[in-house]
TrEMBL record:
Entry GO terms, CC: plasma membrane
Protein's name in the database: Prostaglandin F2-alpha receptor
Domain (G-protein coupled receptors family 1 profile): residue spans on this chain: 43-271
GO MF terms held by the record: prostaglandin F receptor activity
One GO BP: positive regulation of cytosolic calcium ion concentration
SUPFAM superfamilies: Family A G protein-coupled receptor-like (SSF81321)
Natural source organism: Delphinapterus leucas (Beluga whale)
InterPro entries according to UniProt: GPCR_Rhodpsn, GPCR_Rhodpsn_7TM, PglndnF_rcpt, Prostanoid_rcpt, Prostglndn_DP_rcpt
Keyword tags: Cell membrane, Disulfide bond, G-protein coupled receptor, Glycoprotein, Membrane, Receptor, Transducer, Transmembrane, Transmembrane helix
Length: 271
């Protein structure tokens, strides 16, 4: 009694169907990347135009500081969509053949740096905005006398430089950013981590991101409670309070979007 060990031939129709499916998935991925990048750029461009016009219109100190911080956040997000989206589209268009178009790992390093910076910097700016509003509501005299536009610009510069420093840490430590499993983006090494330095970069990114979200939540909670107390105690300065409520609502929206977009990734990376 003989046993037939020969492999079953694959039909041409099955091979054609498999190739067609892969091609469709590739086209959908490219289309999604282009759509996501375009929507992000257009929405941020509109937000930048509105914020710049509002910044020129409102000369109140408490309003201009908030608008300056908000403009910085939107501009950072704009360039994040533009640069990261453009690289992602290029990677898809090149069939994700990193060995062919990035032999020296330069593009992957640039991609990784941009991913870390555009991830952390908006979170930092969101927390700085929350702190600024919290001080403005709970300590208005201190805010009006001690916090000037120069101080706000110094905080912006400090936040941006710190985010750049964190993004450059692997390069400064002579480590490369790694191509991730999907071969569509680069980040810190996330698989088969045995070295403490690779683990440190991941933990630092997650810790800083979660810390920024926690500060935003804490400061926004204090600001909201303070405004509600003032609302029920006094009916004076109604216009000023309405501006504060408007800004707090905007901060809550920013915080909620940041939590939804980043919390799962930060928690998973931290774990």
């Amino acid at each position: 009694m003989s046993t037939n060990n020969s492999k079953q031939p694959v039909s041409p129709a099955a091979g054609l169907l498999s190739n067609t499916t892969c091609q469709m998935e590739e086209e959908l991925s490219i289309s999604f990347s282009i759509t996501f990048m375009t929507v992000g750029i257009l929405s941020n461009s509109l937000a930048i135009a509105i914020l710049m016009k509002a910044y020129q219109r409102f000369r109140q100190k408490y309003k201009s500081s908030f608008l300056l911080l908000a403009s910085a956040l939107v501009i950072t997000d704009f360039f994040g969509h533009l640069i990261n989206g453009a690289i992602a589209v290029f990677v898809y268009a090149s069939d994700k053949d990193w060995i062919h178009f990035d032999k020296s790992n330069v593009l992957c390093s640039i991609f990784g740096i941009c991913m870390v910076f555009s991830g952390l910097c908006p979170l930092f700016l969101g927390s700085v905005m929350a702190i600024e509003r919290c001080i403005g509501v709970t300590q208005p005299i201190f805010h009006s006398t001690k916090i000037t536009s120069k101080h706000v610009k110094m905080m912006l510069s400090g936040v941006c430089f710190f985010a750049v420093f964190v993004a450059l840490l692997p390069i400064l430590g002579h480590r490369d950013y790694k191509i991730q499993a999907s071969k569509t983006w680069c980040f810190y090494k996330t698989d088969h981590i045995k070295d403490w330095e690779d683990r440190f970069y991941l933990l630092l990114f997650s810790f800083l991101g979660l810390l920024a979200l926690g500060i935003s939540f804490f400061c926004n909670a204090i600001t909201g409670i303070s405004l509600l107390r003032v609302k029920f105690k006094s009916q004076q300065h109604r216009q000023g309070r309405s501006h504060h409520f408007e800004m707090v609502i905007q901060l809550l929206v920013i915080m909620c979007v940041s939590c939804v977009c980043w919390s799962p990734f930060l928690v998973r990376t931290y774990g």
